[in-house]
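Crash report, auto-generated. Payload:
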Amino acid sequence: MLILQCPYCGVMADETELSPGGEAHLTREGPGASDDAFHDYLFMRENPKGVHFERWRHAYGCGKWFHAARCTTTLQVFGTYKAQTTEPPKDIRDRITKARPGWTWRDYA
Amino acid sequence: MSDVKSVTALGGKSFGGLVRVAEAPLQGMITVRGDLGLASVKEAATGLTKAEMPATGRIETGAEGAIAWMSPDELLVLCAYADAAPSVPKMEDTMAKDFASAADVSDARAMFRLEGALSREVLAKLSPADLSVEGCAVGQMRRTRLAQVPAAIWFTDDETASVICFRSVADYVFALLKTAAQPGSAVGLAPAG
Ligand SMILES: [Zn+2]
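Recovered output after restart:
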C-alpha cells in the first residue's frame, strides 16, 4: 500500500485516493523542437527499479497535482512536493542519497 | 421556478443499525473559489456564516453556518438552505474586483448524518482515510472516498459525523452506509466500542 502526503492539504492520502500522472519533470517539447527531442518526449520514459519521480493528483481530495519521490521496489517514500517545481528539490535529493547512496535518475544524482 | 418545492435526494430516509444514519434536511451549500488570502473572499465567507476562516483542512462553525476548507483555492460555505441562492449574488458583489466566484451547489449535493459511538468505525469500513480520533479530529474536514465515490467527512463531536456527497450518488452512499452499519457487523476498532 502506498500512502503519499499531499503537499497542498497535508492529507495522508492512500493510493486509491490519488490519480497517477506518470513520470515527473518531463520537458514538453512542442513546435520548433527537433524530431529526436519530440520523439523522446512522446515515447521515452524512465522505468527504474528503485528511485523514481512521479506526478500524482489528489483526485479524491483537494484536486491538486503534486510530485512524489519514491522507491519502486520497496515503496519507500522520500518525499512529496508541489507541482510548481521544475526539478527535484535539494532536500529530497539529499534524503534519497542518505537512503540510496549512488542513486541516479535521468540527470540527477 | 421559485414555486417549485425543493426536496432532498432521498426525502430524508434514515436507518438504525450500529449507528443511526439519516439523510440531512435541505442544506444550503455555496462553493467559493479564489485565492483564500484575499480579503474579499474572507469577507464573503465569514460575513454570511459569522464563522472564522478555516485553517488548511479544517471546518469552522459560526452563528449562521460553517466554512470548510476544501482545497487551497476552494471553500464550502454551509448556511440555511433558503439563504444560499440569495447570498450568492451578494458574495459575488463582495468579490467583484477579484478573480473569485461563488456558486450555489445546495441542490447538487446530498448530506448524511451518522450518530452513535461507532460512527468512526462505520465510515472507516468505506474509506481508506484514517478516521480515528487522532487521524480525523473534531473540526477537521476530510475529503476522501466512500467505496467508489468522493465524499467529504467531518465530525462535530466524537460520536457524530456529517457526510457530503454528490446528489447523483446519494442513493449509492445511503446503501453503503446502511451496509456498513448493519447490526452485528461491528469489527471492534472504535475505542468506545
Ligand atoms: Zn490534497
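Post-recovery validation: Residues 52 and 169 of chain B are 31 Å apart (CA to CA).
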